[in-house]
Amino acid sequence: MSDDVLLSARNLSVRFGGVLAVDDVSFDVRRGEVFTLIGPNGAGKTTVFNLISRIYNPTSGVIDFAGPEGLIRLTAQPPHRVASLGIARTFQNIELFEHATVLHNLLVGRHTHRETGFWSEVFFTRATRAAEIRAREQVERVIDLLDLQHHRDSMVAGLPYGVRKVVEMARALCAEPKLLLLDEPSSGLNVEETDDMAFWIQDVVHELGVTVLMVEHDMSLVSRVSDRVVAMNQGQVLAMGSPREVQTDPAVVEAYLGTVDDVSSLRRAA
């Protein structure tokens, strides 16, 4: 794996009974890019995410990740180690503590950086205080980056859906990941909120230096923020390249984009 590659998937396949959900999929995610998986429902995109998150085990194939201590065979790791290796994710259905404040939800994202033990926390030792300050500093940095100051002390349950989507991304960022997995970040958002999400994603890459691997259906968002795109269908890779290259690939047009109007709209977005 070359130095510019953060994550490498090789010949991934997943079979659920008689269904081949992912079929010999390979790709590399380079450091500092937004790499996006597109495709119709059932194409295998979220299954690939779940392989990286270690929710699923591959039937065959491997995933390698450039972790904090060198190259790691990710597919050999237990699920609970993924976050500590530098990978965080969001979900299609928002997963937050709704009866807690935004600030408390973001502090939960710091759990992988816990530096103190039970008794030092009970007695709130100097080390515990220093760790708490470091955690607060990172959380406040994310709050400022994603413009969540107005909501920091609000209960999540009372927030608009679009704000909760940003809070979920913020919580993932509080873990200081090297790789952020965004599972349909524009799902359920209106046009204005999707525009904001595009800015947040770009800021995450440019301001925090985080690499983004994204699953997304909104082709205007894909074209705006993605460096490279993989189009999938029925578990297989149809095309890989820039958004413009993928959008004009005949196999992608037939399987995913569908109509001439869809393609024209995507070209205008790019």
Question: What does this protein look like?
Answer:
This protein has 270 residues and is an alpha/beta fold. 39% of the residues lie in helices and 24% in strands. It is built from eleven helices and ten strands. It has a six-stranded mixed β-sheet with strand order 6-7-8-3-9-10, sandwiched between helices. Strands 2-1-4-5 form a four-stranded antiparallel β-sheet, with helices on one face. Helix 3 runs parallel beside helix 6 (161-173). Mean pLDDT is 87; it is low at 259-270.
Give the secondary structure arrangement, pairings included:
Elements: E1 5-16, E2 19-30, E3 34-38, H1 45-52, E4 60-67, E5 70-73, H2 82-85, E6 87-89, H3 102-108, H4 118-122, H5 126-145, H6 161-173, E7 179-183, H7 191-208, E8 211-215, H8 219-225, E9 228-233, E10 236-241, H9 243-247, H10 250-257, H11 260-269
Parallel strand pairs: 3-8, 3-9, 6-7, 7-8
Antiparallel strand pairs: 1-2, 1-4, 4-5, 9-10
Helix pairs in contact: 3-6
> What is the CATH superfamily of the largest domain?
P-loop containing nucleotide triphosphate hydrolases
Approximately how much helix is present in the residues?
A: 25-40%
CATH architecture of the largest domain: 3-Layer(aba) Sandwich
Strand order of the largest sheet: 6-7-8-3-9-10
N-to-C SSE series? EEEHEEHEHHHHEHEHEEHHH
CATH class category of the largest domain: Alpha Beta
| Number of discrete helical segments | 11
Poorly predicted runs:
259-270
How many separate domains make up the residues? 2
Per DSSP, what share of the residues sits in E-state strands of 2 or more residues?
15-25%
**Total number of β-strand segments?**
10
Outline type: globular
CATH topology of the largest domain: Rossmann fold
The pLDDT mean sits at 87
